[in-house]
Amino acid sequence: MLSGDLDRLDLAILACLQSDSRTIAEVIGAKVGLSAAAVQRRIKRLRETGVIEKEVAVLSPAALGLSMTFVVMVEMERENLTVLDAFRRQVLADQCVQQCYYVTGTADFVLIVTCPDMATFEVFTRRMFFDNPNVRHFTTSVAMDRVKVGLTLPLE
Q1: What is the Cα–Cα distance from 77 to 125, expressed in whole angstroms?
Q2: For residue 137, what are the β-bridge partners?
Q3: Whole-Å CA distances, 80 to 20, 76, 85, 86, 87
Q4: C-alpha span between 48 and 98 (Å, rounded)
Q5: How far is CA 138 from CA 27, 70, 77, 85, in A?
Q6: Residues 30-63: b if buried by 16+ CB within 10 A, e if exposed
Q7: Most buried residue, 7, 24, 30, 125, by CB count within 10 Å?
Q8: Torsion of CA 13, 17, 21, 27, to 10 degrees
Q9: pLDDT for 26
Q10: What is the pLDDT of residues 86-138, one digit of tens each?
Q11: Does residue 101 sit in helix, strand or coil?
Q12: Using CA of residue 72, residue 58, residue 152, residue 146, what is the dihedral sign?
């Protein structure tokens, strides 16, 4: 589904779901001016077409003892598909990595990593970077504060 295929009602429904995915169809319908059945049909279509990729619970890292967030810039030794794909697989398999972006510029990847403490992060760096001969260099910044964290997309 292309963004041009979404009407104002679809966008209003998506805005409600982004705010709280547990909002029931009756409440959404009252907000957007549709019946609950019409809202359910639209949500089903948005899921089937991939506009809604998944619905998850957002957990508090601090409540789970994961108080440290790191932003890591990674430069690969060689930029070929085999090396990049191997690193992607490694990142996808590691639970400490919350986000990974393949980027332009001096780094090849930017990672957002969450760990309970510096010792755990050190173990992570050994596993991901020092033990990987395809990683040339990495630079880490420690997040001082989580000012804004989310996946809410602008719908206007």
Answers
A1: 16
A2: 75
A3: 41, 9, 9, 10, 11
A4: 25
A5: 48, 12, 11, 18
A6: eebebeeebbbebbeebeeeebbeeeeeeeebee
A7: 125
A8: -50
A9: 97
A10: 999 999 999 999 999 999 999 999 999 999 999 999 999 999 999 999 999 99
A11: strand
A12: negative
Give the integer Cα–Cα distance in Å for 16 and 104.
34
Report the Cα 65 to chain-centroid distance in Å. Answer: 20
Which residues make beta-bridge pairs with 101?
110
The token pair that represents 45 in the structure block:
């279509």
The whole-model pTM stands at 0.85
Where are any strands of DSSP class E within the chain?
A: 68-76, 97-102, 109-115, 135-142
List Cβ neighbours of 113 (8 Å cut-off, separation of 6 or more).
Answer: 69, 70, 71, 72, 96, 97, 98, 121, 124
111 within 8 A of 125, measured Cβ to Cβ: no
Q: What confidence category does residue 2 fall into, taking pLDDT thresholds of 50, 70 and 90?
A: low
- Alpha carbon distance, N-terminus to C-terminus of the chain: 17
How many C-alpha atoms does 98 have within 13 Å on its Cβ side? Answer: 16
Percent of the chain with pLDDT over 70: 97
